[in-house]
Amino acid sequence: MLCCGVIKPVTKLLLLAVLLLGAECLDAAERASVRMSRTRIRQLLSQIVIDEVPAVDGFSLREVAELLDREARRRDPAGVGINFIVNPNIVSLPRGGQPNAVPVQPVVPVPPLIDPNTGLPIPQAQPVAPVNPAKGIDADAVKVKGLTAPLRRVTLGQFLDAVVKSLDTPVRVSIEDYAVVFMHKNPDEQDVFTRTFRANPNTFGQGLTPAGNGQPGGPAPAAPGR
Fold first, then answer.
1. How do the domains of the chain map onto residue ranges?
2. What does the CA dihedral 169, 174, 180, 182 come to, rounded to 10 degrees?
3. What is the SS3 assignment for 207?
4. In this predicted model, what pLDDT tens digit does every residue of 44-61 receive, in sequence order?
Protein backbone atom coordinates (compact mmCIF):
# COMPACT_ATOMS: atom_id res chain seq x y z
CA MET A 1 0.00 0.00 0.00
CA LEU A 2 1.28 3.48 -0.89
CA CYS A 3 1.51 6.00 1.88
CA CYS A 4 1.71 9.80 1.53
CA GLY A 5 2.34 9.55 -2.19
CA VAL A 6 5.77 7.99 -1.66
CA ILE A 7 6.65 5.06 -3.92
CA LYS A 8 8.96 2.51 -2.36
CA PRO A 9 12.06 1.39 -4.31
CA VAL A 10 10.69 -2.13 -4.63
CA THR A 11 7.47 -0.75 -6.10
CA LYS A 12 9.48 1.33 -8.59
CA LEU A 13 11.32 -1.76 -9.75
CA LEU A 14 8.07 -3.66 -10.19
CA LEU A 15 6.53 -0.81 -12.20
CA LEU A 16 9.63 -0.58 -14.38
CA ALA A 17 9.60 -4.33 -14.99
CA VAL A 18 5.91 -4.20 -15.97
CA LEU A 19 6.56 -1.33 -18.40
CA LEU A 20 9.53 -3.08 -20.01
CA LEU A 21 7.62 -6.35 -20.30
CA GLY A 22 4.66 -4.57 -21.86
CA ALA A 23 6.88 -2.78 -24.38
CA GLU A 24 8.60 -6.05 -25.29
CA CYS A 25 5.26 -7.76 -25.80
CA LEU A 26 4.10 -4.92 -28.06
CA ASP A 27 7.30 -5.16 -30.12
CA ALA A 28 6.89 -8.93 -30.44
CA ALA A 29 3.26 -8.51 -31.52
CA GLU A 30 4.27 -5.89 -34.10
CA ARG A 31 6.99 -8.13 -35.54
CA ALA A 32 4.59 -11.07 -35.67
CA SER A 33 2.10 -8.99 -37.67
CA VAL A 34 4.69 -8.11 -40.36
CA ARG A 35 4.57 -10.21 -43.50
CA MET A 36 7.17 -10.27 -46.25
CA SER A 37 6.09 -9.05 -49.68
CA ARG A 38 7.65 -7.52 -52.77
CA THR A 39 6.05 -4.18 -51.91
CA ARG A 40 7.45 -4.12 -48.39
CA ILE A 41 10.92 -5.20 -49.55
CA ARG A 42 11.00 -2.45 -52.19
CA GLN A 43 9.87 0.10 -49.62
CA LEU A 44 12.64 -0.85 -47.21
CA LEU A 45 15.26 -0.80 -49.97
CA SER A 46 14.25 2.74 -50.95
CA GLN A 47 13.51 4.17 -47.48
CA ILE A 48 16.39 2.85 -45.35
CA VAL A 49 19.25 5.34 -45.55
CA ILE A 50 22.74 4.46 -44.33
CA ASP A 51 24.95 7.35 -43.23
CA GLU A 52 28.15 5.61 -44.24
CA VAL A 53 28.91 2.16 -45.61
CA PRO A 54 32.49 0.99 -45.12
CA ALA A 55 34.62 0.01 -48.09
CA VAL A 56 33.71 -3.55 -49.07
CA ASP A 57 36.40 -4.16 -51.67
CA GLY A 58 37.43 -7.83 -51.42
CA PHE A 59 34.28 -8.87 -49.56
CA SER A 60 32.69 -12.11 -50.67
CA LEU A 61 29.06 -12.23 -51.76
CA ARG A 62 28.26 -14.11 -48.56
CA GLU A 63 29.80 -11.35 -46.42
CA VAL A 64 27.92 -8.67 -48.35
CA ALA A 65 24.63 -10.54 -47.92
CA GLU A 66 25.28 -10.77 -44.17
CA LEU A 67 26.08 -7.04 -44.03
CA LEU A 68 22.88 -6.18 -45.89
CA ASP A 69 20.89 -8.44 -43.57
CA ARG A 70 22.30 -6.74 -40.44
CA GLU A 71 21.69 -3.22 -41.73
CA ALA A 72 18.15 -3.99 -42.87
CA ARG A 73 17.21 -5.61 -39.57
CA ARG A 74 18.83 -2.89 -37.46
CA ARG A 75 17.20 -0.01 -39.35
CA ASP A 76 13.78 -1.53 -39.99
CA PRO A 77 11.30 0.14 -37.57
CA ALA A 78 9.58 -3.23 -37.11
CA GLY A 79 12.92 -4.97 -36.46
CA VAL A 80 12.23 -7.62 -39.11
CA GLY A 81 14.52 -6.59 -41.96
CA ILE A 82 14.89 -8.32 -45.32
CA ASN A 83 15.90 -11.86 -46.20
CA PHE A 84 18.92 -12.06 -48.52
CA ILE A 85 19.50 -15.42 -50.25
CA VAL A 86 22.17 -16.64 -52.66
CA ASN A 87 20.89 -19.15 -55.23
CA PRO A 88 23.94 -21.25 -56.19
CA ASN A 89 22.27 -22.90 -59.20
CA ILE A 90 22.44 -21.87 -62.85
CA VAL A 91 19.08 -20.46 -63.88
CA SER A 92 17.58 -19.15 -67.08
CA LEU A 93 14.89 -16.50 -67.38
CA PRO A 94 12.24 -17.46 -69.97
CA ARG A 95 9.65 -15.11 -71.38
CA GLY A 96 7.26 -15.96 -68.59
CA GLY A 97 9.63 -14.28 -66.14
CA GLN A 98 10.04 -17.25 -63.79
CA PRO A 99 13.56 -18.61 -63.44
CA ASN A 100 14.13 -22.25 -64.34
CA ALA A 101 17.11 -24.44 -63.85
CA VAL A 102 19.17 -24.84 -67.00
CA PRO A 103 19.09 -28.53 -68.01
CA VAL A 104 22.41 -30.26 -68.41
CA GLN A 105 22.95 -31.43 -71.99
CA PRO A 106 24.10 -35.05 -71.98
CA VAL A 107 26.92 -36.18 -74.23
CA VAL A 108 25.37 -38.50 -76.85
CA PRO A 109 27.80 -41.02 -78.39
CA VAL A 110 28.03 -41.18 -82.17
CA PRO A 111 27.07 -44.65 -83.52
CA PRO A 112 29.76 -46.34 -85.65
CA LEU A 113 29.45 -46.71 -89.42
CA ILE A 114 29.45 -50.12 -91.06
CA ASP A 115 32.02 -50.89 -93.74
CA PRO A 116 30.03 -52.39 -96.65
CA ASN A 117 33.04 -54.41 -97.79
CA THR A 118 33.93 -56.08 -94.53
CA GLY A 119 30.75 -55.59 -92.51
CA LEU A 120 32.85 -54.33 -89.61
CA PRO A 121 32.10 -51.12 -87.71
CA ILE A 122 34.16 -48.04 -88.52
CA PRO A 123 35.06 -46.11 -85.34
CA GLN A 124 33.82 -42.52 -85.24
CA ALA A 125 35.13 -39.54 -83.30
CA GLN A 126 33.11 -39.20 -80.13
CA PRO A 127 32.02 -35.84 -78.64
CA VAL A 128 33.97 -34.70 -75.62
CA ALA A 129 32.29 -33.30 -72.55
CA PRO A 130 33.27 -29.71 -71.73
CA VAL A 131 36.36 -29.53 -69.56
CA ASN A 132 35.10 -26.55 -67.58
CA PRO A 133 31.31 -26.70 -67.51
CA ALA A 134 29.44 -23.58 -66.47
CA LYS A 135 29.10 -23.21 -62.75
CA GLY A 136 26.59 -21.38 -60.60
CA ILE A 137 27.32 -18.88 -57.87
CA ASP A 138 29.82 -19.69 -55.15
CA ALA A 139 28.96 -17.20 -52.41
CA ASP A 140 32.47 -17.44 -50.95
CA ALA A 141 34.32 -17.20 -54.28
CA VAL A 142 32.44 -14.25 -55.83
CA LYS A 143 34.18 -11.06 -54.70
CA VAL A 144 33.53 -7.32 -54.73
CA LYS A 145 36.08 -5.38 -56.77
CA GLY A 146 36.53 -1.62 -56.86
CA LEU A 147 34.49 -0.38 -53.88
CA THR A 148 37.62 0.84 -52.09
CA ALA A 149 36.05 3.94 -50.53
CA PRO A 150 33.09 4.28 -48.16
CA LEU A 151 29.68 5.18 -49.56
CA ARG A 152 27.86 8.01 -47.77
CA ARG A 153 24.16 8.76 -47.47
CA VAL A 154 22.95 5.95 -49.70
CA THR A 155 19.79 3.92 -49.47
CA LEU A 156 19.98 0.21 -48.92
CA GLY A 157 18.86 -0.31 -52.52
CA GLN A 158 21.59 1.98 -53.87
CA PHE A 159 24.22 0.10 -51.88
CA LEU A 160 22.85 -3.19 -53.20
CA ASP A 161 23.02 -1.87 -56.78
CA ALA A 162 26.62 -0.69 -56.31
CA VAL A 163 27.65 -4.08 -54.95
CA VAL A 164 26.04 -6.06 -57.78
CA LYS A 165 27.76 -3.88 -60.38
CA SER A 166 31.13 -4.41 -58.67
CA LEU A 167 31.09 -8.21 -58.40
CA ASP A 168 33.75 -10.06 -60.39
CA THR A 169 31.12 -12.60 -61.55
CA PRO A 170 27.89 -11.72 -63.40
CA VAL A 171 25.09 -11.73 -60.84
CA ARG A 172 21.55 -10.46 -61.02
CA VAL A 173 19.08 -9.69 -58.25
CA SER A 174 15.50 -10.91 -58.10
CA ILE A 175 13.02 -9.49 -55.58
CA GLU A 176 10.65 -12.25 -54.51
CA ASP A 177 7.76 -12.22 -52.06
CA TYR A 178 9.99 -13.58 -49.32
CA ALA A 179 13.53 -12.33 -50.03
CA VAL A 180 16.08 -10.60 -52.23
CA VAL A 181 17.76 -13.40 -54.19
CA PHE A 182 21.20 -13.24 -55.80
CA MET A 183 21.09 -15.35 -58.95
CA HIS A 184 23.37 -16.49 -61.74
CA LYS A 185 23.46 -14.15 -64.74
CA ASN A 186 24.54 -15.09 -68.25
CA PRO A 187 27.28 -12.78 -69.56
CA ASP A 188 25.17 -11.88 -72.62
CA GLU A 189 22.00 -11.30 -70.61
CA GLN A 190 20.70 -7.74 -70.86
CA ASP A 191 19.59 -5.80 -67.81
CA VAL A 192 15.88 -5.03 -67.76
CA PHE A 193 14.67 -1.77 -66.26
CA THR A 194 11.07 -1.09 -65.32
CA ARG A 195 9.63 2.41 -65.20
CA THR A 196 6.15 3.51 -64.09
CA PHE A 197 4.56 6.64 -65.53
CA ARG A 198 1.53 8.45 -64.13
CA ALA A 199 -0.88 10.09 -66.57
CA ASN A 200 -3.59 12.61 -65.75
CA PRO A 201 -6.80 10.97 -67.01
CA ASN A 202 -8.33 14.38 -67.85
CA THR A 203 -5.35 15.46 -69.93
CA PHE A 204 -5.20 12.04 -71.57
CA GLY A 205 -8.89 12.25 -72.44
CA GLN A 206 -8.51 15.73 -73.93
CA GLY A 207 -5.74 14.43 -76.16
CA LEU A 208 -8.15 11.86 -77.56
CA THR A 209 -10.89 14.43 -78.26
CA PRO A 210 -11.33 14.86 -82.06
CA ALA A 211 -10.49 18.26 -83.52
CA GLY A 212 -13.34 20.44 -84.78
CA ASN A 213 -15.90 21.80 -82.40
CA GLY A 214 -14.01 20.37 -79.43
CA GLN A 215 -16.69 17.77 -78.80
CA PRO A 216 -16.43 14.03 -79.42
CA GLY A 217 -18.01 13.19 -82.73
CA GLY A 218 -17.55 16.72 -84.12
CA PRO A 219 -16.72 17.36 -87.77
CA ALA A 220 -13.32 16.25 -88.94
CA PRO A 221 -10.83 19.01 -89.82
CA ALA A 222 -10.79 20.06 -93.48
CA ALA A 223 -7.94 18.78 -95.61
CA PRO A 224 -5.20 21.32 -96.38
CA GLY A 225 -5.82 23.39 -99.54
CA ARG A 226 -9.61 23.04 -99.49
1. 36-94+134-190
2. -20
3. helix
4. 999 999 999 999 999 999
